[in-house]
Write a structure and sequence with these properties.
- The chain is α/β, with parallel strands linked by helices.
- Helices cover about 45% and strands about 10% of the residues.
- The chain has 15 helices and 9 strands.
Length: about 400
């Protein structure tokens, strides 16, 4: 728990204790001062008591008329009847002593309150877990996945078919590796880079590769994860995300599906949720204006619908650079297949005809379609272990393996 949260909880505890103390004093001020039980019996004998209320500890009498002090009620602590009778014979004033009940009074207030808030906290936490909101104290916390240093496990060598996009991002990698050098030379690096392209072309993979090449922390989050049912949560998560990233700079913040968060303001959206999304977007714009690019913080975002983004996101100083991540061409498809089967030994004849095999098999498939080949690597290995004990595979083996695969996309 952060120190700030601990202070907030401490303030609430102190305030609660003060309220209980004030209530105890207020209750004490209203309480009628008890009199000796013998005085109560005397009032009874004189016929001044009109009504008596008996409890386990006290006896309360309502007087027919106010006494010399102006009181209309007389209260005494109960005494055992036999003892009272004996003391009365000898004309002895007597009263029962009751121990202080302050602790009991305080507990009578605290225990029900603790039980109520305990049940409420339990139910809220169950609800939050089902909604994917995290714990009670993490409502306003960013849900970004953090990959520290080289833990992304991806470099440019693992990304194929998007050579033009990789070439445009090399400058970003160099800046993240040497931010001080760029600052000394007065070079201006864009704060935000928007990756634009059809679904499945490898935008997320490319963003991870940038972080992997630069060996910097990588904060990854989807645009839809910012907005929740509670007003103000999205803006709080944006602030928390940037605060974490600034603490780890140089670093990369990657926002996938930016269109879920950055849709043009004043267009569509449900009542309430629409306002919350706009507040979150406003906070994102504020954060992008509020940090100096020389600190080594780069924001990457991906979308397949750039036309619906708010124009404020695309102005200078924010996402002012766009990188097209398009469908791979024939050479790109060859490179992608080589990446996914690089651990499989191919025959020389297959290497010579692999380009034609790729065009016949995949028909312009995107990056995600080649994952099918990757997941079928076990089948490739099984083919290599057949009775013929082949050490290489030819194009017929690959065609047989991929026969029947239905892949979308058009040849480019």
């Amino acid at each position: 728990m952060e120190k700030k949260d601990q202070w907030n909880i401490g303030y609430w505890i102190v305030a609660g204790l003060l309220l209980l103390t004030l209530q105890n004093y207020w209750q004490a001020a209203k309480t009628v001062e008890p009199v000796p039980y013998s005085e109560f019996e005397k009032a009874l004998a004189e016929g001044r008591v009109a009504q008596v209320l008996v409890s386990d500890r006290t006896v309360t009498g309502r007087l027919k008329s106010p006494d010399s002090r102006g009181k209309t009620t007389i209260v005494a602590t109960r005494v055992e009847p036999d003892l009272a009778e004996q003391l009365s014979k000898y004309d002895v004033s007597y009263a029962r002593v009751v121990e202080s009940t302050w602790l009991r009074d305080v507990l009578s207030w605290i225990l029900p309150a603790v039980a109520f808030f305990g049940v409420w906290f339990f139910l809220f936490r169950r609800f939050a877990e089902k909604q994917g909101m995290g714990g009670f104290l993490s409502i306003g916390k960013s849900h970004a996945k953090v990959f520290m240093e080289k833990n992304t496990g991806v470099t440019f060598a693992d990304v194929a078919g998007v050579d033009e996009a990789k070439a445009e991002l090399v400058e970003i990698v160099d800046f993240l590796k040497n931010p001080q050098e760029y600052g000394r030379l007065g070079a201006r690096i864009p704060k935000g880079v928007l990756l634009v392209g059809p679904p499945g072309t490898g935008k997320t993979l490319l963003a991870k590769a940038v972080a992997g090449e630069a060996a910097v922390p990588f904060f990854s989050i989807s645009g839809s994860e910012f907005v929740e049912m509670f007003v103000g949560v999205g803006a709080a998560r944006v602030r928390d995300l940037f605060e974490q990233a600034r603490g780890q700079a140089p670093a990369i913040i990657f926002i996938d599906e930016l269109d879920a968060l950055g849709r043009a303001r004043g267009v569509g959206g449900p009542i309430g949720g629409h306002d919350e999304r706009e507040q979150t977007l406003n906070q994102l714009l504020t954060e992008m204006d509020g940090f100096d690019s020389s600190v080594g913080l780069i924001i990457l975002a991906a979308t397949n619908r750039p036309e619906i983004l708010d124009q404020a996101l695309l102005r200078a100083g924010r996402f002012d650079r766009q990188v097209l991540v398009d469908r791979p061409d024939k050479k790109g498809r060859l490179d992608i297949l080589k990446v996914h089967v690089k651990k499989v030994t191919l025959a020389e004849s297959t290497q010579a005809r692999i380009d034609q095999a790729i065009r016949d098999i995949v028909m312009g498939v995107f990056e995600r379609a080649y994952r099918i080949l990757d997941t079928n690597r076990a089948v490739l290995e099984r083919c290599a272990r057949e009775p013929l004990a082949r050490e290489t595979l030819d194009e017929n083996d690959i065609l047989q393996l991929t026969q029947g695969l239905v892949l979308d996309g058009n040849e480019k």
